Amino acid sequence: MDQEAFPPVADEKCYQATLDWIQKRGVRLEEIAELTFFLQKDYIPDLTMEKCLESVRHVLTKREVQNAVMTGIQLDILAEKKQIEEPLLSIIKNDEGLYGVDEILSVAILNVYGSIGLTNYGYIDRVKPGVLARLNNHDGKQTHTFLDDLVGAIAASASARIAHSQSFDL
C-alpha cells in the first residue's frame, strides 16, 4: 500500500485499538473488504479485493469512524456482561427492531462519505451478506447489536470512497 493512498493516522493508539477490537469480536478486515467488493463489483469491472481492503483501512483512519466503532463495541460487550440496566439491557441483547440507536451510530460513519454510502448501507443492512449474516444470527453467545451495523457502515463507506475515486467520461 503506497503512502499516497493511505493517509497518516492522527492517533495511532485509537486506530490500533479499533482494529484490535474489531478482530477480537471475530471480524477480519478482509470480511469487511468482501462486503465492499459485493457492493461495487457490478460498477467497477477491474475492482480487486486489495483495493477494497485498502479502502476499508482508509475509512478506519478517520477519527469519527474509530469513535463510533469503539463506542458500539463497548456497548455490545457491556450488554453481554449484563452491565447495563434494564430495560435497555434487554433491548440491546435482543437487538429490538425499533431501537435504532445502533443504526444512528453507524450513520456517523456514513456521514463522512455521503449519500452513496448511505444507500449502500441500507442495501446491505437489508440483505445481510457475508459476515453480516453471521453477526446478526443472535445465537446468544455474543451480542453484536452495534457491531453488525458498524461493519456494514464501514463497508458501505469504503464502497462509497471507491465510487468517488472513479473518473467517469460524461
Structure write-up:
- The protein is mainly α and 170 residues long.
- The protein contains nine helices and no strands.
- The protein is globular, with a radius of gyration of 16 Å.
Short account of what is shown:
This protein has 170 residues and is mostly helical.
Protein traits:
170 residues; mainly alpha; 63% helix; 0% strand; globular; Phosphatidylglycerophosphatase A; Put_PGPase; PgpA-like_sf; phosphatidylglycerophosphatase activity; YutG/PgpA
The number of helical segments is: 9
Question: What can be said about the biggest beta sheet?
Answer: none
Q: Tell me, briefly, the overall form.
A: globular
User: What's the mean pLDDT score?
Assistant: 92
Uncertain spans: none
GO molecular function: phosphatidylglycerophosphatase activity
Protein name: Phosphatidylglycerophosphatase A
Organism: Thermoactinomyces intermedius
InterPro entries: PgpA-like_sf (IPR036681), Put_PGPase (IPR026038), YutG/PgpA (IPR007686)
Give the secondary structure arrangement, pairings included.
Elements: H1 12-24, H2 29-40, H3 49-59, H4 63-80, H5 88-93, H6 101-110, H7 115-127, H8 131-135, H9 147-165
